[in-house]
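Class, study these two lines:
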Amino acid sequence: MTDLRQLLNQINPFSSRHETRDDEEEFKLPNMASLVIMISMNLLLQVSFFIVVSSSNKYAEYLGGNATFSGIIIGIPTAFAGLSLIPLTKYDKGMYKMPLHVSCCFAILGHVAYALAFRANFLYLILIGRCLNGVAFSMFMYCKRYCTDPRIVGIRRRTTLASWLVIGQGLGMSLGPFLGGVLYNVGFSNSIFNGYTSPGWIMAGIYVGFWVLVTIYYEDIPQPPTIMELQSASDSNALPIVSGDAKGRDAEASPIYPSAPTTRPASPVGESFRAQLSLITRSQWGVIVCMCWFAMLCFFILGSWEANLPVFGAAAGNFHWSPFAAGNFIALGGITCFPFLLFNLLAARRTQDRKLLAFGTILGLSGLVIFLSILRTGKVNYGSLFACWWTVALGFNLATTVTLSLLSKQLPPEWNGRTSMVIQYSNYTGRVTGAIWGGSGVSVGMLNFVGLEIAMVGIGAVLFTTLWKDLKTKTG
């Protein structure tokens, strides 16, 4: 096991040839084994979220529900994820191991409950299972916070690590519906393991194995010293806590594990939250509002399309999609986006965050406009619908790369926990409302469905263009 840890630490896929010792603080990275676990956890959670998309509509109908209830099944976990963050952030002490264990536990319970709903013939057990999954999905915030945590990630690594999370997002968006569609073909000869329940049982088994790996290999970041320890060390002159000379000579060896270059106090003692708020400028508040809007917008649109495509495909006269066909269609869009998401990983090192956001938003908007036009003209076929889905999926996935990393570069390091929370709550809001909106898309009318999304992008464009100069940050 020790040899495996050493091997993972030697393999560094995030390195850059242009680094020098002077750049170490800006280019630092966490322990490689722990980083791989966090990125893998993000992927598993994405698969868990999307694996029910292709068959949840049929599963809900079998147990007496409807398409809107199916949308609630897809979106409700994020509401519970947001609620569970309140106690989790109170007791996590700024660490990550406890939330990881909680997430693995509730993911297993949720998938088992989802699978048992068929045998129990109880519609709301599906909902209970997804609510339990929602507690597990609180880990989405911790994955984002980990990849922008100034204690372990340099300022020029945050967008790069966020790109890895988006790659996991794209893989989950492809792999989840595809697996759900494939498993639907298992059939229904068995009341325990069948086309509706197999995603739950398989994901529960995967999480059991992953939980074992987390227990063995994950190493949490060093516990920060308490204020009393810092005071005692300062009085005895044992630790040079803030020193301009120390910063230049030996910042890396500092046992305080600073959250930023040591010229800034890691935790302002006695400073009230209101005093910290007063330090944020009006332009920074504008950037916060803009990033929260785009964090909500991107997941609203992605979530609504993922929930709507199986319903729309089943209702459209020229499609009549089964869950298997719907899953394949959604997965095909994600798979074809994947090479571009990999390219984004490289581009993020040299491209400003605001430009990545602009490109992704424009690309996604073009897909919405094209879809509106083919709906109006009645020329919806497999090829035209796929072109719209591909541009929407790629564009808004790219846009999600920068929402948290940009904020983490502009605001004080001490705000990383708060910015992670506010961005994640925006994501959750978008996922919940988007999934419900997508499930209701056919009943409210597809023109209204797309029109609302275009209007929301328009609001984002106003914010974006107004704050263009204020959105400039370091690359990487």
Q: What stands out?
A: The two ends are 32 Å apart (CA to CA). The longest helix spans residues 282-315. Confidence is low (pLDDT under 50) at residues 1-5, 7-19, 226-270.
